[in-house]
Design brief:
Number of helices: 12
Strand content: 15-25%
Order of helices and strands: HEEEHEHEEEHEHEHHEEEHEEHEHEHH
Shape: globular
Helix content: 25-40%
Number of strands: 16
Distance between the termini: 52 Å
Mean pLDDT: 91
CATH class of the largest domain: Alpha Beta
Length: 306
């Protein structure tokens, strides 16, 4: 039997009541990753952003002040991370979203967040589902959220900045041969590790930074220690704190891997490699400097700033 949502919940949503048409071209339709046409009735003023990537994109296009709710694992930017929580590891609460009088919810289909779509639709709160599978999709989602929030100009400005910075990296790396890299995104005490799959934004970051994934073509992200040993990467990059590098030479057989033997080991903050928002371009920049330091030895007067 379909669930009947109580009247108080519909009223709290603030959307159940008729709203005037916004002067910035609202209402407007946008299409999300599920192929759904979502009507945004007015410029969103109270946004719930679920998952860090969506928070960072919204903040990057100037909609950060409109965010009223996030999930428990949001860390950046810190002033937004402190805002009301609508869920976390165990799921998300439609009631909490409604109490915040949200007029737009932005989410990614992970940890069952997409199950919010139907109940939110029933109480009249627009919900956008975004899929950040690769770098092109991340850029497309910046444009999409610019349209959904009425911040198209800010989205265009952000995209122009990101494109210019990526072009500056390409110019620096022109003529540089790619180097073979094992990029570790996770590790367990059982001797299994996580690396990068093709067709993902992290794989794009590695490629644009002048790296060649030693596990290109793998269908799974999980790899064994022996597989890394056989791949014999020239560089090892860990997504995480530098302290994790200390354990690499202690892993069975790894001391003879070229990257370990020659101390070509580096760590980058996981947020720059594993959160598909605007900071992925900073990930490209920092990783390119690690893999090809000679290409960045001289300052470039035309290098755009973040």
């Amino acid at each position: 039997m379909p669930r009947i949502w109580p009247l108080w919940l519909m009223l709290l949503s603030g959307i159940a009541l008729a709203q005037p048409v916004d002067s910035q071209g609202f209402p407007r339709l946008v299409v999300d990753a599920l192929g759904r046409q979502v009507e945004i009735p007015a410029k969103p003023r109270r946004i719930v952003a679920i998952f860090a990537s969506n928070v960072e994109i919204l903040n990057g296009i100037g909609a950060g002040d409109a965010i009223v709710g996030v999930e428990a694992f949001t860390r950046y930017p810190p002033e937004i991370a402190e805002r009301a929580k609508v869920g976390g590891r165990l799921g998300f609460s439609v009631e909490a979203i409604a109490r915040l009088r949200a007029d737009l919810v932005v989410m990614t289909p992970a940890r069952q967040a997409a199950t919010l779509v139907e109940p939110l639709q029933r109480i009249g709160i627009p919900a956008l589902v975004l899929d950040h599978r690769d770098l092109n999709t991340v850029m497309a989602n910046i444009r999409l959220l610019g349209s959904a929030t009425g911040n198209e100009a800010q989205a265009r400005q952000l995209l122009a900045n990101l494109d210019a910075r990526l072009e500056a990296v390409r110019a620096r790396l022109a003529g540089q041969a790619p180097v073979r890299v094992y990029l570790e995104t996770g590790a367990s005490e059982r001797g299994t590790y996580l690396s990068v799959r093709d067709g993902t934004y992290t794989a794009d970051i590695l490629r644009l930074a002048g790296g060649e994934n030693v596990f290109a073509g793998n269908a799974l992200s999980q790899v064994g220690g022996e597989s890394v040993f056989r791949a014999n990467p020239g560089h090892i990059v860990v997504a995480g704190p530098p302290e994790r590098l200390q354990a690499l030479p202690q892993r069975p057989g790894w001391a003879s891997i070229g990257a370990v033997r020659d101390n070509r080991l580096a760590a980058l903050p996981s947020a720059l490699l594993l959160i598909p928002g605007p900071r992925v371009v900073e990930g490209v920049e920092q990783l390119a400097r690690l893999l090809h330091p000679s290409a960045f030895a001289e300052p470039s007067p035309g290098m755009p700033s973040p």
